[in-house]
Fold each of these.
Amino acid sequence: MTPLNTYLRNRRMAIACSQVPDGARVLDVGCRDGYLFQYLGDRLGEGIGIDPDLMEGRDAGRYRLLTGWFPDDLPEDVGTFDVVTLLAVLEHLQPVEQEQLVVDCRNLLRPGGRVVLTVPSKEVDHVLRVLRALRLAADDSVDQHWGFDARRRTVPLFEAGGFSTLVHRPFQLGLNNLFCFTLP
């Protein structure tokens, strides 16, 4: 990870974690190394992270990291969550997968629960390609973004799935977007 990647990740974490209530039970989809749970620290009630690219699962006390795909590889007795986080995940999915993701999030949330997402603007793909060519950023997944238009498609996608919008705010010079949805 380059210094620029680290800086951008930390900014994304700060903004996303501002939407996570203290003591929340959190499911982090696409958790990578579990940094979101580390960032939350004592604010985390309990956490489960899942990521297909995770080399091996681990139990870190207040949180567990699982290798696998969401939601198929979650334990049957996983229960419900106060918050589901999806940081830089939605743009990697095809439209039919996005619709199913909304259903899966709804099924795993407690009433009043939240889905917190960060979704890059589609313009960021061009910026990332340049930064990658200059070796200022490392991102092997930029070619998986499918041109997803976060500003136009994210709110309708979640509202069609029964969610209410709490927050939509661009950040990082408009190249990224924070969304927070809740179940009424």
Note: The chain has one domain: 3-182.
Amino acid sequence: MATSGNRLKAGIGRRIRFLSRYIKNPNVVGAVSPSSRALSAAVSEPYRRCGRRCDVLEVGAGTGPVTRYLGTILKQDDTLDVCEIESEFADILESEVLAGLDFEKPKEEGRVRVLRHPIQELSPDKTYDFVISGLPLTAFELSDVEEVFDVIRRCLKPGGVFSYFEYIGLRRTSRVLSLGKKRARVRAVSRYLTTNIREHEIARDKVIGNLPPAYARHLRFETA
């Protein structure tokens, strides 16, 4: 069993690797630090409250803070697909996160897997009760955000919930500080997200205990 010192070193190592990937490719990683446990819990709350068997998809898992939390609430017979296109992060998910005790039985039973491809390449036959996203949507082109939302709509079961988080004030700050084509892109993405929030948001949780503070947003596109 790992000592508290070893766990601390492992946590620091994950943060350093996360920051390194952010510096190399900020448009893909989208944050300077992994999500806190508080944010992981907030963005997973609709799934945690579900009392029946569920199929869950996590997108943009990074180094796996949300994945780790999901492991603590994964119910018997539930399935979890974790989609991560960054190879270094996918390696961490498989060798460290899914190696934890919470995932031992689900892995043996084939109920947990890492998908090393974009969400756009998901099998059209696979559907989920919950989709939980850590994708940096505000860093994407509008066409990419629209495509991601289209795929999520398609793969959610009737009444399914899409949960994601965004840092408080980030869209507003980006609109103010960006210039030229980047400002136009940020504004277009922000308008698209705002429209979806207005039309489909069923709940929102404010998480101050995260760096930076964030909203966990929960959307439902169809009724059960």
Note: Residues 4-24 form the longest helix (21 residues).
Amino acid sequence: MSQGATSSTLEARKSLAAQIRRPSASWRVLVVENDQSDMDTLAAGLRRHGHQVEGVGTGSAALQAYQVSDIVLLDLELPDLDGLEVCRSIRSLSDVPLIAVTGWGTELDRVLGLQAGADDYLVKPYGFRELMARMDAVMRRARPQSVTARVVSCGPLRIDASSREVSLHGEAVEVTRKEFDLLFLLAAHPGTVITRKRIMQQVWGGSWSRRTVDTHVSSLRGKLGGSDWIVTVRGVGFRFGTV
């Protein structure tokens, strides 16, 4: 290879490296990681690239936090719940982009992770630039869905997941964190009956009672001015209604 060709190749590689280092658009990243050291390292790298990071160490916490995230990085080795079940639970109720980041590296592990709903699968140890490239690729594919899913509007009711604000007829409705999570969960799946078990997992992370769910539903109905927004399906759960 001539010296000119070698120089040209080196310049091309430098240009590609610069593109890899360039920060992506800012995303809200949920890091679900059992190892605190790994979490701290990953979170620091993501923040250097301009992203907002929330870190949790359990599957229960992940099920409560994913709804306000743009992308989830999910360790499948969790102390409280099966990581694959956490992945399935999130995917059954949301299209949020999700990458499994785990030490489980066999072909069967990858197949099970992808079948559980992961958009991509990355085995530890991995290079940070590879992770960023995979996140970029997943977000490019998912961006149309993830953008539209941030705001749910139904007639006079508007629910914004980004700002966690609810408004009715243009007037703000003050709701608690759990009330917002419950309302957004139902509204994001119009016409779908959400079981009490799923509400338990998504909103309360598995710690719940029937009275707790009913109390929050009753409070939301009062704040929204009627029971038609949240319809009880006896023996099953609830679904989002229209007024």
Note: Residues 231 and 239 are 5 Å apart (CA to CA).
Amino acid sequence: MKLFAYSFVVVLVLGLSGTANADSVNIYAAASTSDAVEALIIAYGANDDDQVVPIFAGTSILARQIDQGAPADIFLSANEAWMDHLEARGQTAPGTRANLLTNRLVLVTPRLAAMDYDFASAAGLSAALGEQRLALADPGGVPAGIYAQQALSARGEWDSIEDQLVFGDSVRVALTWVARAEVRAAVVYRSDALTTMSVAVLGTYPEDSHPPIRYPVAIISGSERRPEVLAFYAFLRGPQARLIFEDYGFGVVDQD
């Protein structure tokens, strides 16, 4: 089942060119990074004439918008495949791509209605869900959903729960549903689970149950000539940003 909510994000992306200051730095960032990136922008302290404008959505949505000419300056992707796609099409500035962050997958339930499920056994998830749903980001294109499907398949759970799944267009949609107890559980990033007290973590999926979760960042082709873009890009990869990302539950890749 697919329930695509919060479509306003796409409208924001499409309409940005009419609202952004010509001197602004537009960072298109995966929905899972929204709290951390907002905190980074505050820490960066750009003035009104040199502002940083964040646009958050599922990575697949952002990548497609960039490919269609949306006014992005920096892209922070939740997986490497979508960055590969843009790079292959000449959309990223040569020499600016770098792996910035890492993450882990967790199973969460509403804190006030925790699910009776032995995560370590990797058995009985369908029964634990009962008549309710397990929420994922859409595995048809959203990185968190792709990783979740791989992890559930590796543990032998996917086939038994396939009819009990509901898909959101970003990992934050899945998180919202479980935080509101609209679903029985959700598979989200660890960093997402840390953003709300409304969910409880039942377990962390083994790293060998899915490919490594890496967030690459790159400057979009043409924007590398703008000093304000280069300045914020350098800040993203610097020591102050590292501390902020770590506070929000991300691992940070050592930068050369």
Note: Residues 1-20 have pLDDT under 50 and may be disordered.
